[in-house]
UniProtKB/TrEMBL annotation:
GO terms for biological process: anthranilate metabolic process; L-kynurenine catabolic process; L-tryptophan catabolic process to kynurenine; NAD+ biosynthetic process. Catalyzes the cleavage of L-kynurenine (L-Kyn) and L-3-hydroxykynurenine (L-3OHKyn) into anthranilic acid (AA) and 3-hydroxyanthranilic acid (3-OHAA), respectively. PANTHER family: KYNURENINASE. InterPro entries: Kynureninase (IPR010111), PyrdxlP-dep_Trfase (IPR015424), PyrdxlP-dep_Trfase_major (IPR015421), PyrdxlP-dep_Trfase_small (IPR015422). This is Kynureninase. Homodimer. Its cofactor is pyridoxal 5'-phosphate.
Length: 402
């Protein structure tokens, strides 16, 4: 693939116009939108409006003018991106907090089932939260097994199968209908973490019971943006939220001593939502209105091919599945000094990230990366490896986050 080939792909890219809806530094090739999505250009004005007009002028009245309903209203905007109904999704809290609520709820549903099954190497918060959640339910336990042993781990003690749809390191994607069906065949509930798949791949939760996901990655909601939680309609009146805060009460402003859960998704609220973060997410979702996920998937596959070929030509091991249906929208290479390599790339304006111990991870966000951008990133990767630039001792010092 030459630079001209990449330009030719850009010339017929149906998503090309979306690039102008984002603010990105001119000297940067941003391949980390799978960790923190880029800034949609109109979001600062929406934030300023939320601060100066809604907060500054309207003050407390704003709770009646859109703030109170924000979790449900914004959740309904995310629903079509995950194949859910508008009244099956709300936003608020973080993915970790939603995981806690749902794991405890699933364990409390059927006292005869005591085990949560999850995958070794799942994103740490999923495993850590599950580890804590099982201590809140008598007799409950967490069973963490390798991917190839998951099917055998499901039995008549399994209350919940907790899987991350697209793996944060390798981008390997579970077959959602098949795994939901396996969980159900064992009599368990299925909880999907969609953090690395929402906005990256087309999702149809279909028969799934529960889901959570981050909005600050492909949905570009901003750092720490409120996460979403999905509960299938058939479970909404049966599952209880242990973090039973006043905002999930049937009548929060009746100020009753006793807790009565709100009907529907509102019971998954806990405390007062962070309205400024909600405002940023709400505005960021404008970009996703009407986006054709088939076009996103096709472009993601084309961007992947550009980097996969560049990396393979350099002798890098690609740990991401080659089949587009079996992966998300990032590509990961194994390198014995992946940390230094990542830092050398960042110093050259290619922002990706390192995942311990040996993974260089590059996010492919079809809304704001062109084929030529990704070709250039591949070319800078080539130059960095061929000149052994990553061996500079300056790149060996570890930062806290990337
Ligand atoms: C699969 C997965 N779940 C959850 C999270 C994050 O959860 P939280 O937003 O609560 O930090 C991440 C990334 O940070 C993730 O990759
Ligand atoms: N949530 C993050 C944060 O607060 C700081 C830095 C990175 C993150 C991430 O999103 C990490 C990400 N989930 C990952 O896949 O590695």
């Amino acid at each position: 693939m030459t630079r001209d080939d990449a330009r030719a792909l850009d010339a017929r890219d149906p998503l090309a116009a979306y690039r102008d809806r984002f603010t990105l530094p001119a000297d940067t090739l941003y391949l980390d939108g799978n960790s923190l999505g880029a800034l949609p250009a109109h979001v600062p004005a929406a934030l300023a409006n939320a601060a100066t007009r809604q907060w500054g002028d309207r003050l407390i009245r704003s709770w009646n003018e859109g703030w109170f309903d924000a979790p449900e209203r914004i959740g309904a905007r995310i629903a079509p991106l995950i194949g859910a109904a508008p009244d099956e999704v709300i936003v608020g809290d973080s993915t970790s907090i939603h995981l806690f609520k749902l794991i405890v709820a699933a364990l409390r549903l059927d006292p005869a089932r005591r085990t949560v099954v999850s995958e070794a190497g799942n994103f740490p918060t999923d495993l850590h939260v599950a580890e804590g959640a099982v201590t809140c339910v008598p007799g409950a336990r967490l069973r963490v097994v390798a991917r190839e042993d998951l099917a055998d781990a499901l039995d008549d003690d399994t209350a919940l199968l907790l899987l991350t749809h697209v793996h944060y390191k390798t981008a390997a994607r579970f077959d959602m209908p098949a795994w939901t069906a396996r969980a159900h065949a064992a009599g368990a509930l299925m909880l999907w973490d969609l953090s690395h798949s929402v906005g990256a791949v087309a999702i149809d939760l279909a028969d799934a019971d529960l889901a959570v996901g981050s909005t600050y990655k492909y949905l570009n909601g901003g750092p720490g943006a409120p996460a979403f939680v999905f509960v299938a309609k058939r479970w909404q009146d049966c599952l209880d939220n242990t973090l039973s805060g006043w905002m999930g009460h049937a009548a929060p402003f009746a100020f009753e001593d006793g807790y009565r859960p709100a009907p529907g998704m509102a019971r998954w609220r806990t405390g007062t939502p962070g309205i400024l973060s909600m405002a940023a997410l709400d505005a960021a979702l404008d970009v996703w209105d009407g986006v054709d996920m088939t076009a996103v998937a096709a472009k993601s596959a084309a961007l992947f091919e550009i980097l996969a070929r560049a990396g393979t030509a350099l002798g890098l091991e690609c740990v991401t599945p080659r089949d587009p249906a079996a992966r998300g929208s990032h590509i990961s290479f194994r390198h014995r000094d992946a940390y230094a390599l990542t830092q050398a790339l960042i110093a050259r304006g290619v922002i990706g990230d390192f995942r311990d111990p040996d993974i260089l991870r590059l996010g492919l966000t079809p809304l704001y990366l062109s084929h030529e951008d990704v070709w250039r990133a591949g070319d800078i990767l080539r130059e960095t490896i061929e000149t052994a630039a990553w061996q500079d001792p300056a790149f060996a010092t570890r930062n806290a986050v990337t």
